[in-house]
Amino acid sequence: MLIRVLFFGVLKELVGRSSETIELPEGAKVDAVLRHYSRQAPPFEAMLPSLALSVNQEYSRADVVLLPGDEVALLPPVSGGAHEPGTAQDEVRIVREPIAAEAVVQRLKLPEDGAAVIFDGVVRNNTRGRRTLYLDYEAYEAMALKKMAALAEEARSRFGVRQVALIHRLGRLEIGETSVLIVVASAHRGPAFEACRWIIDTLKTTVPIWKKEYFEDGAVWADGEPFPEEIRRPAGTAGEQPASK
């Protein structure tokens, strides 16, 4: 059976491509994909404990049995366009143009709101003492939008806020530009603050978006924050022996 495999961030550079199709025997598990690339690129094996996996845009375990045509994504820890809202109440987008923060805030606020809490994540000019020239963001877009929409919906349910805007930019970003904007509108400031903090902290560990930093003396993929334990890839031992297609 044929399985499509996607690579992101540092993994894309490690294997030299962003996607490919491999052939696996019927009944093979996700772990077979991992073993395939561990043999092809030995440095890949050292990264296995930090990876997360997805099958058809949902986080998955290594022991899940694959079906013909499945799409498997190998996800390094995430960094901290088309419009596709998560629900009728929330504004959830991935864009490639500059984010107009003030326009989003004005669009979200209603007379019944007592608070609009804003997180405006901007590109700074240095990282750990190295002068930053610019950043470049990439994402597993379809999955990232689904996860962002789920975050907005859960924030409303968990904290009782009225509405959420969650917008992330991809591509090249210059110093001072907004990379991610979160606006939470609520009747009261407390839930709005809590929801906004929870959204950005959770986004940084669960939404598949990666950041490459360009410095005067080179470029590196930003170290991602560890995936939560519930979605981190289990070690896995058994696996089939796939052949390249």
List keywords for this structure.
245 residues; alpha+beta; Ubiquitin-like (UB roll); Aldehyde Oxidoreductase, domain 3; 2 domains; five-stranded antiparallel β-sheet; 28% helix; 33% strand; globular
Could you explain the architecture of this structure?
By secondary structure, the protein is α+β, with helices and mostly antiparallel strands. The chain folds into two domains: 2-76 and 227-244, Beta-grasp domain (Ubiquitin-like (UB roll)), CATH 3.10.20; 91-221, Aldehyde Oxidoreductase, domain 3 (Alpha-Beta Complex). The chain is 28% helix and 33% strand. It has six helices and 15 strands. It has helices at 10-15, 30-40, 42-47, 101-108, 141-159, 189-206; strands at residues 2-7, 19-23, 52-55, 58-60, 71-75, 91-95, 115-122, 126-127, 130-139, 163-169, 171-174, 178-186, 209-215, 218-221, 243-244. The chain has a six-stranded mixed sheet with strand order 4-3-5-1-2-15. Strands 8, 9, 11, 13 and 14 form a five-stranded antiparallel sheet that branches. The protein has a four-stranded mixed sheet with strand order 6-10-12-7, sandwiched between helices. A hairpin with a 2-residue loop joins strand 13 (209-215) and strand 14 (218-221). Helix 5 runs antiparallel to helix 6 (189-206). The longest helix is centred in the middle third of the chain and has 19 residues, at 141-159.
